[in-house]
Amino acid sequence: MLDIRKVRENPELIATKLKTKRFEFDVEAFAKWDAIRRDADVFSQSLQAEKNAASKQIGVLKQQGMSIDEAKAKVAETLAKIDAQLKDAEAKAKEASDVLTTMLMATPNIPDDSVPAGASEDDNVEVRRWGTPKAFAFEAKDHVDLGAGVNGIDFETATKITGSRFAVMQGQVARLHRALIQLMLNTHTEEHGYEEVYVPYMVNADSLRGTGQLPKFEEDLFKVPFGDQQYYLIPTAEVPVTNIARDRIFEAKEIPVRYACHTPCFRSEAGSYGRDTRGMIRQHQFEKVELVMLVNPQESMAQLEALTGHAEKILQKLELPYRVVKLCGGDLGFSASLTYDIEVWLPGQQKYREISSCSSFHDYQARRMQARWRNPETGKPELLHTLNGSGLAVGRTLVAVLENYQEADGRIRIPEVLKPYMNGAEYIG
């Protein structure tokens, strides 16, 4: 959530910055409700002062000739009128504050000053490339045909079991999927200093509000009613892992905090409108290894560069060509202030496709969650900066391995780094 004090200072500037995200901030409505809140607060304070003064009038009224009972009755009548006015003023202030909170909860984060202008993914800016796409001496197949060819991916059975946009993996392909998870977790915990965590796959609404999925993206979530409670299947491990810091104050020596977590992710893909219906690119259930950082705001930008490099390292180990792009304002996520997308080369599509988004949220999520650290210079709690990124999306990494390591006869050569996890096998199929 945005800092309401900064919005009050210059709402027009906030509105201008949010237009970069194609969001129209209603300056007039904000000013109206903020004025109502301010006036009600000022009136409440003046009424409280009147109340304090009135309660001291019994002695004065006695000196003016009233009996003690008459004086008490007169003061009680005055206090009752003030209390009625005070109750009304407090109700108006609360209503205005609630409206402002609702308005800010539905307002996206401000883009970092370094975010390029642009309306869509076509305007994202390439930062760097690694590796060279392989030139095949045969027509490259996509992962759907390759998976069927080695009897490793079955979409028809998944549709029978559940519905569209699910997959059944079996045999060596299922093992390859598991091997990728192990490679990612081992690399991030042993080489990059992340602490592995295991979290619930269902969360409450407060957790989703904390990271910004609610109220904006409720239609993208799978709901799980349970008695008189409402749970949600996690759309990403970002939600439960980042919420570890909710309502918590970290000491300076404890940060930066780095968490790595493997979970399934569940998304309705309500806004995908039929995109990527073939194969495993966009599914309702998929796996990710998520990286989450909680950092000192002064180190935020440097830590985002580090996190992005950690995700890239997995692709380098797998020897998969990729590129890194900086998202333009129009393609930037709701809660993100700055995002690097890592896109891996897919021969079956002859294009780069996103495999990780690495984002800084500045203090946007931390303000919602009240995730703080104690600044040793002041001794006071201050908001952390939160960052996260996929390190990596496992299903898409599997797709990339299948397509980039395919042989002319349909077999899949196993990347060197994965052989220890695959019992030394050279090929699938």
According to CATH, the homologous superfamily of the largest domain is Bira Bifunctional Protein, Domain 2
Report the oligomer: single chain
Determine the structural class based on helices, strands and strand pairing.
alpha+beta
Helix content: 25-40%
Low-confidence stretches are: none
Just name the CATH architecture of the largest domain: 2-Layer Sandwich
Characterize the biggest β-sheet: 8 strands, mixed
Number of domains: 2
Task: Tally the helices.
Answer: 13
Rough outline: elongated
Radius of gyration: 28 Å
**What's the overall average pLDDT, rounded?**
94
CATH class call of the largest domain: Alpha Beta
Distance between the termini: 51 Å
Q: How many strands?
A: 18
Biggest β-sheet: strands ordered side by side in the sheet: 1-11-12-13-16-10-9-4
SS strand fraction: 15-25%
CATH topology of the largest domain: BirA Bifunctional Protein, domain 2
